[in-house]
């Protein structure tokens, strides 16, 4: 299926259950067009935008510099609400996983990973996934639909609510001595973001806008299974950090683990990475490599990997497999993971072994899944 037909078939709803248009996810000029169609003056758009993205308000009543009749009209026609949290689970390591219910009842998972000097939010781009990667729990859930730009942004805004990350003053920004809990965003949750490209671009542009959520592009990473035809465009349009799910050193093994490799084989994916516009010595492409015992974890695999990535500004994230019932895989031994990492490091690559987070609440890499089901057509 082409990306364009995929986009059309799995398109998200454009209004909520009450028929209201979400203002979250609209670019500022679109907010102008939308509200002026209801006879509101254009200058109100900037005020509304400020309240949504700088103050984090969840209802129009709180927009106190707007006349009451305007706030009533906005509440009738538009929405700025957050998704509901069905469950909130906290791991022993501090990781939090939220199961969020969207306006049409579909559900997604979003994960916050706190660390000593930063906090990373793992954001979903689709309900379910179409890729069926054999080691990934999300891949056992068929793709239900894409997320809209507002549903992508809602995850970030929900997390800011939960972590109390909105400013308390009227300045629309944190005070200098405030310490942000949520500093980084990774589009690594449920789904393949480049199969939902337009909504991802719309959401991330608002996320990066200094007058929007004001998150630096250097603190945003988009993860892809390797949709080679879209990688360069992603760099041109967004300039965010890139992570590529590699997970094998040969096409034979990668195609068994990741069927998408049959359409976008290793050579094509890696060539797209070589031309990724913002890749440099200080902004390296991250290659994700999951360690599966006796599948892709041999010393020979590591040596092949060093040759495959030659000439690419890269680092390799080595990921111990996070087990889930029925996967059919085991995690590589600690000794073999160490040997694999040393071969990469001796060849000059940065190859950290990722410390698993949130395993006890099924929030670790490859473990996300919801109970949403695709509607019959």
Can you offer a commentary on this structure?
By secondary structure, the chain is α/β, with parallel strands linked by helices. It has 2 domains: 17-79, DNA polymerase, domain 1, CATH 1.10.150.530; 84-361, TIM Barrel. The protein contains 11 helices and 13 strands. The chain has helices at residues 3-9, 28-36, 43-55, 68-77, 149-162, 197-208, 228-237, 251-257, 266-274, 299-308, 334-346, and strands at residues 21-22, 78-79, 84-90, 96-101, 107-114, 119-122, 126-127, 145-146, 184-187, 220-224, 241-245, 285-291, 314-320. Strands 3-4-5-6-9-10-11-12-13 form a 9-stranded mixed sheet, covered by helices on one side. Helix 10 (299-308) packs parallel to helix 11. It starts with a helix and ends in a 31-residue tail after the last helix. The model is unreliable at 169-177 (pLDDT under 50).
How many extended strands?
A: 13
Q: Can you tell me the overall shape? A: elongated
Largest sheet: 9 strands, mixed
Distance between the termini: 18 Å
CATH architecture of the largest domain: Alpha-Beta Barrel
Q: What percent of residues adopt helix (DSSP H or I)?
A: 25-40%
Quaternary status of these chains? single chain
SSE string, helices as H and strands as E: HEHHHEEEEEEEHEHEHEHHEHEH
Radius of gyration from CA coordinates: 21 Å
CATH superfamily membership of the largest domain: Aldolase class I
| Mean pLDDT, all residues | 91
CATH topology of the largest domain: TIM Barrel
Number of helices: 11
Give a quick precis of the structure.
This protein is α/β, with parallel strands linked by helices and 377 residues long. The chain contains eleven helices and 13 strands.
């Amino acid at each position: 299926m082409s990306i364009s037909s995929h986009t059309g078939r799995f398109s998200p709803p454009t209004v909520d259950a009450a028929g209201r248009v979400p203002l979250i996810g609209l670019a500022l000029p679109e907010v102008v067009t939308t509200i002026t169609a209801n006879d509101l003056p254009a200058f109100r758009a900037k005020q509304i935008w400020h309240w949504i993205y700088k103050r984090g308000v969840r209802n129009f009543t709180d927009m106190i510099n707007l006349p009451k009749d305007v706030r009533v009209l906005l509440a009738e026609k538009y929405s700025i609400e957050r998704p509901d949290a069905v469950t909130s689970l906290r791991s022993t390591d501090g990781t939090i996983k939220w199961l969020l219910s969207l306006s049409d009842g579909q559900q997604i998972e979003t994960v916050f990973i706190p660390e000593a000097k930063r906090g990373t939010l793992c954001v979903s781009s689709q309900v379910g996934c179409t890729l069926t990667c054999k080691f990934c729990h999300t891949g056992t859930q068929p793709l239900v639909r894409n997320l809209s730009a507002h549903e992508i942004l809602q995850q970030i805004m929900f997390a800011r609510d939960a972590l109390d990350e909105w400013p308390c003053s009227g300045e629309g920004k944190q005070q200098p001595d405030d310490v942000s809990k949520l500093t980084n965003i990774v589009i690594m949750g449920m789904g393949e973001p480049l199969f939902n490209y337009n909504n991802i671009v719309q959401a991330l542009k608002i996320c990066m806008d200094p007058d929007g959520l004001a998150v630096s592009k250097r603190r945003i990473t988009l993860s892809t299974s390797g949709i080679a035809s879209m990688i360069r465009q992603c760099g041109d349009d967004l300039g965010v950090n890139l992570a590529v799910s590699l997970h094998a050193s040969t096409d034979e093994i990668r195609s068994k683990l990741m069927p998408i490799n049959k359409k976008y084989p290793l050579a094509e994916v890696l060539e797209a990475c070589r031309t990724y516009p913002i890749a440099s010595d200080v902004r390296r492409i991250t290659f994700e490599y999951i360690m599966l015992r006796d599948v892709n974890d041999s010393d020979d695999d590591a040596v092949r990997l060093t040759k495959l990535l030659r000439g690419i500004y890269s680092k390799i994230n080595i990921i111990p497999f996070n087990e889930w019932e029925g996967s059919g895989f085991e995690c590589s031994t600690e000794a073999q993971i160490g040997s694999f990492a040393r071969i990469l490091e001796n060849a000059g690559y940065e190859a950290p072994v990722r410390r698993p987070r949130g395993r006890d609440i099924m929030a670790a890499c490859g473990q996300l899944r919801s109970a949403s089901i695709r509607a019959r057509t």
